[in-house]
Specification:
Number of domains of chain C: 2
Order of helices and strands of chain A: HHHHHHH
Largest interface: A-C, 22 and 27 residues
Strand order of the largest sheet of chain C: 1-2
Distance between the termini of chain A: 63 Å
Strand content of chain A: under 5%
Number of domains of chain A: 2
Oligomer: heterotrimer
Distance between the termini of chain C: 72 Å
Shape of chain A: globular
Shape of chain C: globular
Structural class of chain A: mainly alpha
Largest sheet of chain C: 2 strands, antiparallel
CATH architecture of the largest domain in chain A: Up-down Bundle
Radius of gyration of chain A: 21 Å
Chains: A mainly alpha (about 170), B alpha+beta (about 210), C mainly alpha (about 400)
Radius of gyration of chain C: 23 Å
Structural class of chain C: mainly alpha
Strand content of chain C: under 5%
Helix content of chain A: over 70%
CATH superfamily of the largest domain in chain A: NADH-ubiquinone/plastoquinone oxidoreductase chain 6, subunit NuoJ
Number of strands of chain C: 2
Largest sheet of chain A: none
Number of helices of chain C: 13
Mean pLDDT of chain C: 89
Number of strands of chain A: 0
CATH topology of the largest domain in chain A: Four Helix Bundle (Hemerythrin (Met), subunit A)
Mean pLDDT of chain A: 83
Helix content of chain C: 55-70%
Chain lengths: ~170, ~210, ~400
C-alpha cells in the first residue's frame, strides 16, 4: 500500500463516484474519464505498460469521445434534479452492498492474499503479441469479426438513410 | 498524374519565396509610412471647397445652391445660406454659405457632390490622413477647414483643374466680350443720341 | 581515439554529462526525481523557445511566399515579434461567457497543453538523450495524442456557443478520422523494427551500408508511410490545409472562439507543440532520429541532426500552409477514409512482402510497384467518381 497506490485509488473512486453523483451529463462523462485514467495509471503502476496505454487510448480516446458525442446529439438543457431518497435508492444500496460482499469474500479467500505479493512477470509487448497469435488466436479472430460486423453495420445504417432521402 | 497540381503549387510558392529576395516584382510591399506608393491623379478621398485668389472668404466659389446637400446619399453635407449677397468671379451677385459642414466620418467618397455642382466649387481632395482622437467633433469639417485654394487644386489634380480653369477663363472672356460689346453698343447709342440731341435744339431754335 | 574524435564525442554527449554533473550534487535517493525534473524543465524550455521561433519563422516565411514582408518592425527582421505577441496575449482581458461551464472552460486549455507536452517523453533527441525509455513508447505517444481530442471537446462544449460546438464536433471528427491512417502508417515501421520502443527504432536506423543510412524513409513502403504519416499529422494538429475546425473565415475560430488572452495563447501553443511532437515522432520512425544522413557526417553532434530535421519538417509544414487552400469537411473525410485508409492498408501489405522477400533489386521493384500503382489507380478512380470538370469563369475574361 504505497503512497502512489493510495493516491490513484482515491482518484479512481472519487472519479467514478462523481460520475454517479453529478447532475450535469457532461460533467459525469468527464468524471468517468478521470476514473478510467486512474485505472490506467494503476495498470502502469503494476508495470503493465501495454495494457495501461491501451486503456488510455481506447477508453479515453474512443469510449469517452463516443459518450460525449451521444450527449451532444441528444442533449437537453435541463439538468436533472437531484433525486430524493426513494425506494429505488434503498434497493440499489442493498444490491451494491451484496455485490461488494461477494467480491470482497472472493478476493480475501483467493490465493494471492495468502501468498503475499507474487513475483511480477516482466511482460514485454512481444510476449503479448506472441500469445495473441499463438495461444489466443481464436478470440482475436472473433474480436476482429465482431469489429468488422460493427463497422459494416454503421456504414449500412448511414448509407440506408441516404437511399431513403433519395 | 495524381498530385501534379499540388506539386506545381508548391513549386510556385517556392519560386515566390526565393524570388522575393532577388527581384522586386515578387515583393510588391512598400515600407509604409516611410515609403509611399504614388497615388493616381483621379484619387478621391474627401471633398473640399475651392476658392480663387488669396482671401478664402471672398474668393469661395460656392454659392450655397444646396444641390450637393440634396444629392449627397448619406446626407453628410450641411449648408446654411447667408442673408446677404456678394459678387462672384463673374461679377454676378450670389449668396454664399454662412455654414458649410461636412461630416467625413459619414462621407463615402462617392463624388456625387462634385459631379452635380454647377459652379466647380466642391472637388475631391487626396489627403486620407484624417485620423484623430477627438471622436465627437474631430471629423466634422467646417467651412474654414474645407476651403483650399485653386493653386492647391491645380497641384493635386493638374489636368482636371486645368480644364476647369480653361472653362472658367473662356466664360469670363465671353462675359467680358459681351460686356465690351454692350458697352460699345451703349456708347454708340449714346453717341447717336448725343448727335441727334444738339440737332434738335437747332431745329427748335429755328422756330 | 584521437583527440578530435574524443572532443566530438564529448560534445555529442554534453547535455548528458552536464545532467550527471548536476545530479551528483543531490543525494542518491533524490536522483531519479531530480533527473525527471531536470528533463521536464529542459523539454519545456527548449520547445517553448522553439514555438516562439517557429511563429516568427512562419510569419516571415508565409509573408515571403505571399509577396510581402513579414513582421519587420519589432527588432531586426522582426525577431522580437513573438515577445510582443506574448505580452499581448498575457495582458488581454480574460473573458468567459456568462453561461459557460466555468470549471470545464478553465480545464480545457490546461489539459490540452499537458497532453501535447507529454508526447516528448519518448522522443530520443540525441544519443542517450531520451527522457524515458519506455518499452511501449510509440503506444504511449498515440495514447496521449488521444487525450487532446477530449480537451477539444471540453473547450467546444463548455463555451455554450454554436460556433464553438460546431467547431468542436468538426475537430473531433477530423482528429479521429486521421488517427487511423496515422497509426497504420507507423505500424509498418513497428513491423520492420520488431519493437515499440523508440530508442530501439532509432538504433536500428543509425547503421550505414556504404554512405547510405538505413533510414526507413529510403524504402518504398517507408516513403509511402512517411507521406501518409505527414498528411495525417497535418490533419491531427488542425493545420492548414486541414484547419477547418479553426477556419477563421467560416466559423470565427471554431472551438476556441470564446477564449481570449492567455487561454487562447495556450491553445495556440498546444497546437504548435503537438505539431512538433508529431514531427518528432515522424523523424524517429522514418527519418532515423538523431542519426546523420551520410556516414561521413556522423561527427556532427546528434541533437543538432534531430533539430535540423525538425526544422526542415516545420519548414515543409509552413510551405504547405502557404500553398494549399483549405479542404472542406466532406473533402477531408473522403480523403481520410477513401484514400488514406486503403493506401495505409496496402502499405502494410507491401511492408510484409518486403520483409519476406530476399534482399535485392527485385524486392525494390515489386514493392515500388505495389505502392505506386494503387496510389495512381485509386486517385484516378476517386476523381472519376466525382466527375470533376474544368471550370470556366465567364466574367473574368
Amino acid at each position: 500500500m504505497t503512497a502512489s497506490f493510495i493516491f490513484l485509488a482515491v482518484l479512481t473512486v472519487a472519479g467514478t463516484a462523481a460520475a454517479m453523483g453529478l447532475r450535469n451529463a457532461v460533467h459525469c462523462v468527464l468524471a468517468l474519464t478521470l476514473g478510467l485514467t486512474g485505472i490506467a495509471m494503476l495498470y502502469l503502476q503494476l508495470d503493465a505498460q501495454f495494457v495501461g496505454f491501451t486503456q488510455i487510448m481506447v477508453y479515453v480516446g474512443a469510449v469517452a469521445i463516443l459518450a460525449v458525442f451521444v450527449i451532444m446529439m441528444t442533449r437537453n438543457d435541463k439538468t436533472m434534479a437531484p433525486p430524493a431518497l426513494s425506494y429505488s435508492g434503498v434497493t440499489g444500496g442493498l444490491i451494491a452492498a451484496a455485490v461488494f460482499a461477494v467480491l470482497a469474500w472472493a478476493i480475501c479467500s483467493s490465493a494471492s492474499r495468502v501468498q503475499g505479493q507474487p513475483a511480477q512477470p516482466d511482460v514485454t509487448v512481444q510476449q503479448i503479441g506472441d500469445a495473441l497469435l499463438h495461444r489466443y488466436v481464436l478470440p482475436l479472430e472473433i474480436m476482429g469479426l465482431l469489429l468488422t460486423a460493427a463497422l459494416i453495420g454503421a456504414v449500412v445504417i448511414a448509407m440506408d438513410r441516404e437511399e431513403e432521402m433519395k | 498524374m495524381v498530385g501534379e497540381g499540388i506539386l506545381k503549387g508548391l513549386a510556385e510558392t517556392a519560386r515566390n519565396f526565393f524570388g522575393s529576395y532577388v527581384s522586386k516584382d515578387r515583393l510588391t510591399t512598400v515600407q509604409y509610412p516611410e515609403q509611399r506608393e504614388p497615388q493616381i491623379e483621379a484619387t478621391r478621398d474627401f471633398p473640399f471647397l475651392v476658392y480663387d485668389g488669396a482671401d478664402w472668404q471672398q474668393g469661395l466659389r460656392c454659392v450655397a445652391c444646396q444641390i450637393c446637400e440634396k444629392e449627397c446619399p448619406p446626407k453628410c453635407i450641411f449648408i446654411e445660406k447667408s442673408k446677404d449677397k456678394k459678387p462672384d468671379a463673374f461679377g454676378k451677385s450670389q449668396f454664399y454659405p454662412a455654414i458649410f459642414n461636412i461630416d467625413i466620418s459619414v462621407c463615402m467618397s462617392c463624388q456625387i457632390c462634385v459631379e452635380v455642382c454647377p459652379f466647380d466649387a466642391i472637388k475631391m481632395d487626396v489627403d486620407y490622413h484624417q485620423s484623430t482622437d477627438d471622436r465627437f467633433g474631430g471629423l466634422l469639417f467646417n467651412k474654414q477647414r474645407l476651403a483650399k485654394s485653386n493653386e492647391y487644386y491645380n497641384a493635386i489634380h493638374p489636368t482636371e483643374a486645368a480644364a476647369v480653369d480653361a472653362q472658367r477663363a473662356e466664360e469670363l472672356a465671353k462675359l467680358e466680350a459681351k460686356a465690351k460689346a454692350a458697352a460699345e453698343a451703349k456708347a454708340a447709342a449714346e453717341a447717336t443720341l448725343a448727335q441727334k440731341a444738339p440737332a434738335q435744339p437747332a431745329a427748335g431754335e429755328q422756330q | 581515439m584521437t583527440h578530435l574524435a574524443l572532443l566530438m564525442q564529448q560534445l555529442d554527449q554534453i547535455f548528458v554529462l552536464a545532467a550527471h554533473w548536476l545530479l551528483s550534487y543531490l543525494p542518491t535517493a533524490l536522483q531519479p526525481l531530480g533527473s525527471a525534473i531536470l528533463s521536464v524543465t529542459a523539454i519545456i524550455l527548449v520547445f517553448a523557445t522553439l514555438f516562439a521561433l517557429v511563429t516568427w519563422m512562419e510569419r516571415k516565411g508565409l509573408g515571403r511566399m505571399q509577396n510581402r514582408y513579414g513582421p519587420n518592425r519589432v527588432g531586426l527582421w522582426g525577431i522580437f515579434q513573438p515577445i510582443a505577441d506574448g505580452v499581448k496575449s498575457l495582458t488581454k482581458e480574460d473573458i468567459v461567457p456568462f453561461t459557460a461551464d466555468h470549471a470545464v472552460h478553465y480545464m480545457a486549455p490546461v489539459l490540452i497543453v499537458a497532453a501535447s507536452f507529454l508526447g516528448y517523453a519518448v522522443l530520443p533527441m540525441g544519443r542517450n538523450m531520451v527522457m524515458v525509455d519506455l518499452n511501449a513508447g510509440v503506444l504511449f505517444f498515440f495514447a496521449v495524442g488521444s487525450l487532446m481530442e477530449l480537451a477539444v471537446f471540453m473547450a467546444g462544449w463548455s463555451s455554450r456557443s454554436k460556433y464553438s460546438l460546431l467547431g468542436a464536433m468538426r475537430a473531433i471528427a477530423q482528429m479521429i478520422s486521421y488517427e487511423v491512417p496515422l497509426v497504420l502508417a507507423s505500424i509498418v515501421v513497428l513491423m520492420q523494427a520488431g519493437s515499440l520502443s523508440t530508442v530501439a527504432i532509432v538504433n536500428m536506423q543509425a547503421v550505414y551500408s556504404g554512405i547510405w543510412p538505413h533510414w526507413f524513409v529510403l524504402t518504398p513502403w517507408g516513403f509511402a508511410g512517411f507521406v501518409l504519416f505527414m498528411i495525417a499529422a497535418t490533419a491531427e494538429s488542425n493545420r492548414s490545409p486541414f484547419d477547418l475546425p479553426e477556419g477563421e473565415s467560416e466559423i470565427v475560430a471554431g472551438y476556441f472562439t470564446e477564449y481570449s488572452g492567455f487561454k487562447f495563447a495556450l491553445f495556440f501553443l498546444a497546437e504548435y507543440i503537438g505539431m512538433f511532437a508529431t514531427s518528432g515522432l515522424a523523424i524517429t520512425l522514418f527519418l532515423g532520429g538523431w542519426s546523420a544522413p551520410f556516414s561521413f557526417l556522423t561527427w556532427v553532434p546528434s541533437y543538432l541532426w534531430f533539430f535540423a530535421k525538425l526544422l526542415t519538417l516545420i519548414a515543409a509544414f509552413i510551405w504547405v500552409r502557404g500553398t494549399l487552400p483549405r479542404l472542406r469537411m466532406d473533402q477531408l473525410m473522403n480523403l481520410a477514409w477513401q484514400f488514406m485508409l486503403p493506401m495505409a492498408l496496402l502499405n502494410l501489405l507491401t511492408a510484409g512482402v518486403w520483409h519476406l522477400m530476399p534482399a535485392g533489386p527485385l524486392r525494390w521493384l515489386v514493392c515500388s510497384i505495389m505502392v505506386v500503382v494503387p496510389c495512381i489507380l485509386l486517385g484516378r478512380g476517386l476523381k472519376h467518381k466525382k466527375k470533376l470538370q474544368v471550370r470556366t469563369y465567364h466574367f473574368s475574361q
